[in-house]
């Protein structure tokens, strides 16, 4: 009975198209941010490495989330927003911890391998190597002919591997884009469905636009702009790292697709709610932090496209 009365009350509220779109985009954005770091956590686990991830990227993002959390508490925002901000901080810590763990673990492995490679060959191998070298010097020109033949066979083998790797990479890349696109479509569906259920059950109601809002505490506003600066600057170390490495291998493409979708829907949710000047200025730090980073996400997508075509078996 209570659920029915809530649903009836929800239906009595006049819902305009902009209010509905604002609610839908807000719900989609929330789902995106809940799952945004999961693909990179899984990718690091599968690779057994976090070398592709710029630790500065995640740390600066974490600082931005902390500033966002403190600003939300200071501004007295609703408990749901504060809880989501807390969740973001714990998610960042999980990814930072994973990256540090793999970096330390793999650094130790590299030191061990380096120590072993500096050792000498076993004495049993040395005569075999010596005999092999002496056999090559027995006939004039034999070493040159064998080297030439071996070099030709090596080039042919590398070319075959290069062609095969290009085909496999192209097919795998196509499947990866398709899988990630389907995941994003699933996120859009879940977010829209969650909003529809919340609206029909009366849990979600359109928030009236306050024409004369209370001024935000100056400290909370400063933290809001500080978090926006952190979000804008966080991706720069990752973009630089990708450029220096000429590779995006080990990065989760879905991670950045969810980030772009979350930022786009978050900004759209704010703008569809109201374009009133006071409301716009109040939310300006969060708009800058969300919509501004979309340019950097697009840059990383371009790097995925450019560096993804480079084969490790390419012959110069």
From TrEMBL:
Any GO CC annotation of this UniProt entry: lytic vacuole membrane
Localization per record: Membrane
Record membrane topology: Multi-pass membrane protein
Region annotation (Disordered) ranges: 114-157
Principal subcellular localisation of the protein: membrane
UniProtKB keywords: Membrane, Transmembrane, Transmembrane helix
SMART domains (alphabetical): CTNS
GO molecular function terms listed in the Swiss-Prot or TrEMBL record: basic amino acid transmembrane transporter activity
Transmembrane portions of the chain: 20-42, 54-75, 81-104, 182-202, 222-240, 252-272
Pfam families noted in UniProt: PQ-loop
Domain of life: Eukaryota
Signal peptide extent: none
GO biological process: vacuolar transmembrane transport
Catalytic activity: L-histidine(out) + L-arginine(in) = L-histidine(in) + L-arginine(out)
InterPro entries: LAAT-1 (IPR051415), PQ-loop_rpt (IPR006603)
Similarity remark: Belongs to the laat-1 family.
Protein name per the record: Vacuolar membrane PQ loop repeat protein
